[in-house]
Amino acid sequence: MPQERPYRVIQWATGSIGRISIRHFVDNPAYELVGVYVTNAEKAGVDAGTLAGLDPVGVAATGSVAEILAVEADCVNYAPLYADVDEMCQILRSGKSIVTPTGWVFPQGLANQKPVERLAAACREGGTSLYGAGIHPGFSGDLLPLTVARLCTRIDRITVQEVADLAQHPSRAMNFDGLGFGRDPDDARKNPSPLIHTMENIFRESMALLAEGLGIVVDEYTTLFDVAVTTRDLVVRSGEIPAGTVGGMRHEWIAHSGGRPTIVFRSFWKMADDLDPDWGYGTIKYSVAIDGEPSTTLTLAPAHPHPTGDEGYWGRVWTAMNAVNAIPAVRAAPPGIHTHLDLPLVRPVGLFRPEPARVVRS
């Protein structure tokens, strides 16, 4: 919770989420940015402010793990595209807690518990904590339905739907190499790209957290995956997508209980609206639909478009801030791996402050 001095934080990786986080740490007097770790050699030595589209702030990025681990800090905002358990264990053993949008929202739900045991041991050795959060998973698929469920007297099924427009997302590594936009559709269906497999584990964690929170015994988890093709050549922020290749993808993760689907997550990631097939999901960002008594629907969407026209920007802010705003609660928690089910109510600090006079596209 709030403390006399600012929380000393390190930003680990400076992709789209990392840059948003840096701007928050610089703007919010409750935090002090004391270090930045980068994986791109061209970014090493560059001022953190410059990397985040700000004026220089006097903190130079480093590509040396040993150098960044030597920096005294309370917490690391760990935001690479893929989590590295060895890296995370080093951070935790060095006395720095971790908040991260890379998963770990409910590690107890993972099929492979060996990495979880290693991370728990590192927390004990370093006297530190690990907490995973984000927008989905980490909020709309777990914390949000857990909250809405308090209004119901009976629940038959929970359906969480995400619609993400990635046309203005800056990361080629995520969109093309990770998710597989621009691929041949038949090959993408048969051999999903690496991040698709990673997301399957991460979303299973979120569903397991929701099931645990509501006392649902899950019999099995199933997955459905399909792609849509673009009918024209697309030029998006992260690259070019030829006509006839993957321009959209739909994923369903389903938790079955008592022989029926009980929790359903649907994600639709698109690069354009005129795709084949047209799944008709519209522009709703996130929705939670509870079938039961009473049946209840809640929609989460930005109230205003971003000034640059980047439809997905506010979703990336949500992803970053749900983890970052938990730093005070994570630091106050006892050592170990924490989730929504055991962490106290997160009370963000430093949010009521003057608005910076700038518009950043990043």
Automatic annotation (TrEMBL):
<feature type="domain" description="2,4-diaminopentanoate dehydrogenase C-terminal">
    <location>
        <begin position="142"/>
        <end position="347"/>
    </location>
</feature>
<dbReference type="Pfam" id="PF19328">
    <property type="entry name" value="DAP_DH_C"/>
</dbReference>
<protein>
    <submittedName>
        <fullName>Dihydrodipicolinate reductase</fullName>
    </submittedName>
</protein>
<dbReference type="InterPro" id="IPR036291">
    <property type="entry name" value="NAD(P)-bd_dom_sf"/>
</dbReference>
<dbReference type="InterPro" id="IPR045760">
    <property type="entry name" value="DAP_DH_C"/>
</dbReference>
